[in-house]
Specification:
Elements: E1 13-17, E2 23-28, H1 35-46, E3 55-60, H2 65-73, E4 79-83, H3 84-93, E5 105-108, E6 118-120, E7 132-135, H4 141-151, E8 158-161, H5 165-173, E9 179-181
Parallel strand pairs: 2-3, 2-4, 7-8, 7-9
Antiparallel strand pairs: 1-4, 1-5, 6-9
Length: 182
């Protein structure tokens, strides 16, 4: 499948899932759009544990889409809300006949693009000598956004893996990175 020239920049979370028994183990980032799952967990805690229907178990992944994809593959969770670009990149990378790390996109969870934050120690790229982007991991949403931003600018693209938003804040305070898009 030739996808040269295709650019995905929607940054829309989508659901990927495997199902097992009557328990759905769900993974998500600690963000506001996962509030409905948190409310369900609160309501579920007040109900009879023997109530009919699937029960939800929640696990937080501050590392983002890459960490959640790995959790689905390793069967730590059954379902996760990941960024479209990360899921599509993973599916393309693992599309061979003997691919073991396959996932399936179930549908769109948030239909509109998300508002995301850009954190920078410099006001503009010319203000920084190093221009190092902090990213949660290679292939993550923060990595993809940095690449798209670099397509619109000139200069070398350098990365430092910071793992999470907390790691980005710490690295920026230490002067190890100049930018982080979350």
């Amino acid at each position: 499948m030739d996808l040269s020239g295709v650019r995905l920049i929607s940054q829309r979370p989508i659901l990927i899932m495997t199902v097992k028994d009557n328990l759905v183990r769900f993974g998500g980032v600690p963000e506001h759009f996962n509030a409905p799952f948190q409310r369900l967990l609160q309501r579920q805690a007040k109900e009879d544990p023997a109530a009919e229907g699937p029960q939800l178990a929640w696990r937080t992944y501050p590392g983002g889409s890459g960490a959640m994809l790995n959790a689905v593959i390793s069967k730590e969770v059954d379902c996760a809300c990941v960024l479209t670009e990360s899921a599509v990149a993973h599916i393309i990378k693992n599309s061979g006949e003997d691919a073991k790390d396959r996932v399936k996109i179930l549908g769109t969870y948030v239909a509109s693009p998300l508002v995301w934050g850009v954190h920078a120690s410099a006001r503009r790229p010319a203000d920084s000598d190093s221009n190092i982007f902090g990213i949660s991991r290679m292939g993550s949403g923060s990595h993809i956004m940095a690449q798209v931003d670099n397509d619109n600018a000139e200069g070398d693209l350098r990365f430092k893996v910071v793992n999470s938003l907390d790691g980005a804040v710490e690295s920026m305070a230490k002067g190890e990175i100049d930018y982080f898009m979350w």
